[in-house]
Amino acid sequence: MKALVYHGPFQVAVEEVPEPKLEAETDAIVQVELAAICGSDLHIYHGKIAGVLPGTVLGHEFVGRIVEKGPLVPFPLGERVVGSFQVACGDCPACRKGQYFACLKGGVFGFGLALGNLQGAQAERVRVPFARQSLFAIGDLPAEEAILAGDILTTAYGGVRPFLSPGMSVAVVGSGPVGLMAQMVAHALGAGQVYAIDPEETRLEKAAALGSLPVNPKAEDPVARVRKETQGLGVDLVVEAVGGDGEALKLALRLAGPGGIVSSLGVPTAEKLEYPWLAAFSRGITLKSALANIPRWIEEVLALQRAGRLKGSWVFSHRLPLEEAPEGYRLFHERQATKVALVP
Description:
12 helices; alpha/beta; Quinone Oxidoreductase, Chain A, domain 1; single chain; 17 strands; 2 domains; globular; six-stranded parallel β-sheet; oxidoreductase
């Protein structure tokens, strides 16, 4: 079958690879209908994720149909599903506590040795371990909507929903795909003013279309602007949706008002960050940071999608055949694409 294979920093290619096979009674094989390139895939593309070896099939966002399954998989053959980017067993102590991101047996598709060494989903077919807990039925939900539930939309939802009360002020640092989804969720769940902070005007235009107030740090100091509009306080909830070297998180901590919450969703590439302990202590700031907990929140997201309350397919700027996936990575890397869908 054809798949997108990693060969080193900035080196990916579509190649013939072996067909996936069932390895356990809880496995399923999914025929991929649609895959997508995630911002965290770019960290791999840039060579910043240790343990992703040459030959790894990339990708963790996908929808498709079950074409083969083990006897312990409850879905019927042909069921249309979205995959959680996280594989979780559902039975270990962490899963029983609902902390699926910390599953002792789990992993992430296409993210190398540190996260389960699973082959990815930017391919014609993908093996899904623990399918009962890692796949979710989508019925006739459009593929470009459903695929968002498997990662970026539910990541955003889990970073907003537990902390947001109606009328709260929100700042989102980063208006890439996850940041835009976080803004959409905040508006849908009744936030007050939502500030979108990003240096790219094209992204800020999308944020403004959602009803957010765009703030470009190249043009003004975002901390001064937010505090001016919040009686000198700062916002109630800050969503950090960049990750990387930690500069966005530093800004997020400065944007939070007294008693505020900083919800960090971006995938970090730095191991350490200097934390403003005294300032956070004095202002009562809470920092929440973890790998997204997709199985915990995805059913709520799918219900809101089916009801038409969360529609995010507008985030896709490009839809390419799988054969053109390397071009999709280039476009995303050069910020010429907001999000790229891949059709096997």
